């Protein structure tokens, strides 16, 4: 049996879904994207004032059309991740603006060098399934192409799929053309997608111009989308769990319905980035326990409907890699794993998703590994009946060398990495009395030194750069990117073996 989490009864889930449908039918959604709104009207959805209304039967039809799962592929076209069922994938969070520099401990604007190091680091993390375009390089590239520039740095430094998204109303097409360079044609990109794009529902039962156009473009290009409402409990959604889940569900069902109207069978994740609004502090913590409660509640609704899921979890609102960061990250990572969230956005993130930290990412990799290990199926493993094992214990006074122990310990016991200290105090002192931050920072540098570059066809790379430069308003060159450090082959081999435990 797989360990799981259950917080809503089927009857309550049905009530939540029915209430969400009632909101969509009676109040509708404000769809500000003109092209998408026109498609919905042409389909036959009622337009009353500035709001599109969604009849319940259309929403029900859309849920049936949406795939229950889909596969993400690598840059070179190999299956990489099955998004659906209870498969759990941990992914760095998105939307960061600043970097907590692990070399200086300074919080500053992130640049392209930071982003390349992040992708190279992420490429070798065992428990981070695929990267996200986690933060903006907002000090060295023009804003209108910064989304494409981030994708370029991913595509030329990792073969893994990526969670991304466009910053502007017309950003998807350029990014889709970039990904198509690694496929035979557009149809092949649709058949073997290498990215999930985020579509943000902006609250107040509204989709902005950017969100509407990006949704339309992604679906037409066959790019899977995650519908991510920013549900603020107590501000733009009810402060209570059931009420907030209803509002959240309405926002997501609107996105799913619009995607299916554009193209039936379009892959869509039932996602979200909820937070609570604290009146006294005027803050909106995403790692608040109530926000985590809302995450697992809407995931339960999505599971009831048989839809793939996404959630912002395994993150922290702390400012540093400290006890709060570890507690908030692991507790929510474990909740996400138990709930069966298919794509968990959050590792590496601090400070309300505003700051990214490479040491936190390597430590989160360790925490996510432990959460995934917790999901092992619980079943008898030659330990029922247990009488012979009990007799052996009494005879030998231990079970260390027992045949049963030797057969099962490699898959049963999780060996933590070096960021987690489980040595004796004497050993810890002999090894330098290093703090968590020191250990994690050292591992960042070791993993960056162990990075193995990937080859990119020079013609494809030139076309990637051309697509980005075509959107620039000036002739300034694209930012310089850090080269891969030269390493001795033997030392590199040792590092690779160390980090691919």
Describe it for me?
By secondary structure, the chain is an alpha/beta fold. It has one domain (1-379, 414-501): Trimethylamine methyltransferase-like (TIM Barrel, Alpha-Beta Barrel), CATH 3.20.20. The chain is built from 18 helices and 19 strands. The protein has a four-stranded mixed sheet with strand order 2-3-1-11.
Main sheet properties: 4 strands, mixed
Topology, number of strands = 19
Mean pLDDT across the residues is 93
Percent of residues in helices comes to 40-55%
What share of residues are in beta strands?
A: 5-15%
Structural class per helix/strand content? alpha/beta
**What general outline do the C-alpha atoms trace?**
globular
Q: What is the CATH superfamily? A: Trimethylamine methyltransferase-like
The CATH architecture classification is Alpha-Beta Barrel
pLDDT under 50 segments (min length 5)? Answer: 486-501
In CATH, what is the class?
Alpha Beta
N-to-C CA distance: 26 Å
Rg over CA atoms, rounded to whole Å, is: 24 Å
At the third CATH level, what is the topology name? TIM Barrel
Give a nutshell description of this structure.
By secondary structure, this protein is an alpha/beta fold. The protein contains 18 helices and 19 strands. It has a single domain, classed as TIM Barrel, CATH 3.20.20.480.
